[in-house]
Fold this protein.
Amino acid sequence: MNGASPVLIGFLVAAAAILVVMAAIARTTIEPPETQAVVTSAGYQLRKGWLWALAAAAVVALAISLPSFPYGKSATLTGQHFTVIASQYSFELPPVVPAGKNIVFDVTSKDVNHGFGIYDERGHLIAQVQAMPDYVNHLPLRFSVKGHYVVRCLEYCGIAHAAMQGAFEVR
Amino acid sequence: MWAYLVTGIAVFALMVLVGLAMRMEQAHWVTYDPGSFYAMMTLHGSGMIVALALCGMGGLWFIMDRERPMDQGLAWSAYALIVLGVVAVILSVFPGHFGAAWTFLFPLPFVGATWPNWATGTFLIGVALVMLGWTIFCAQLLGCVLSKYGGLRGAMGWDLVFHHDAFVASGRPEPPPAAFAALITAVDGLFAAAGGMLVGVALIIHWLDPSVAIDPLWAKNLTYLFGHTFANLTIYMAIAFVYVALPRYAQREWHTSAVLAIAWWGTLLFVATAYFHHLYMDFVQPRGVQYIGEVASYLAAFPPAVVTIFGGALLIYRSRMRWTMSSMFMYAGLIGWLIGGVGALIDATIPVNVSLHNTLWVPAHFHTYLLEGVTLFVFGWIFADLEVRTGVVSSLATRWIAGLGIFGGGAVLLLGWYVAGAASVPRRYAEEPAPGPAIAAWASVGAILLIAGLIVCLIEAVRLARTRSAAATP
């Protein structure tokens, strides 16, 4: 299962819940009306709970996501380094990178902004970083699965952007 | 200012057709060269945001002009500059074939270009003209709000929040909710325009003298500061329509409260700082701003979710609601805004963004709140005016047909992007890898249904307008 699939399912469940709740609220307009003061008084109490629930959700999301930020600390950038150079419309890539070891892709561009997106054999995007002129972005990674990985450009870079691909093996 | 609204709708209609042509090409229903695809993508991206902004500006100008009359000459000057800018952008694309996307990330417009040099300059000057017109509009709006409500302190509702009892005892009227939308649009709009103008002028200078160096990361930050904020403000301008019109249909009042004022302060801050999420994958950005990007993106959701959309739902709940084309669109727009916001929040979570950044998830969520949010607020505003002037409302059948096209077709169109984004299909590809083309095919069907719904709306709006004309004829 693609890592993004649970995200899609979660999104669809949230969207469906929103639709159900908002439809239910709209449906109350066929019921006998209440005065605005009565509705507001009860609604403001509910809003407090809604605010705290959202705040709690945001804190939890931050707490879960912070340790998984992809940027890497200086200690994690000490593995074997591989240079990646993007240019319109190809990548200079290492042909082989090791499996099961910490590595770092040092990614830059000769010309315009590009994206260095790594796709596994199932076609799932597993990691990415921008390839920028004048800058080097360090992408720390550890491949646990050996195989053939495709690289696609993920920043619009010109007329052959969609055809800009590369590949490497993980052994 | 009907000129803003009519021009905005006209540009919107043209951009819808351009968008359909792009999706059909991705579905392999039609074939044309990648250069044309990317030129159309450039036009669609820049044109659609300007179209929605024009609609928002026209409506907001009308609302605030009733609070404190504004200078028509300035409004027309801003309008003329924006229209000139739009014409320049269109010329750069047809016949210029400029195709560096609305983002025009430096140095793309100048390196490997397949279009003539004049097209690059025309596009950049066009964008600068739009920004100039926008700046004039925002300055005028800011002047209106500040002079009407007693300076920044009054307009922001400072005393309402911190000296509540004294404020109420003073008998001074608080700014209406729409005034907060105007204030935040003006302040954030000027801030964004300053950033946009800076990078725009730098690029124009580089176009004139290629030896002038520009830092790509600096340019990228300013481009997204402007683009993100400008696009977001189209929502916050259009929400003023909901504040004004929806209470009439619910036969209730939308009051300014201290909570509403604080919520808008949050919007002022977070809309201007959330843009960092566009640069999550630029690892050379200072680490701190990446954290700010995620936190600001989360916090930007609080004012709509807790105050405006919640307040809209509360306004409707067990009210004497009159469901018409206008109120249906406005309420549905709140739902679209909320659902699109959920999609945006998911994408704003950095570890998730690794799998979604620059995939079709991005157009999925922004089309949700622009197409099923802002656009519906604009349509709701137009129908509100027509319904008030004519005293006529559309039939239930017409509302169902329009609704099925716009919501049903829209859902199919949007789902295509969400599903393809979750399947890692990149965005901005003239030729998408699988399963992109298959998804684009049924998304195109959704787009056609959506357009059918839009056409029903247009016909109904014309019918109501003609009813008005007939009623006015002695």
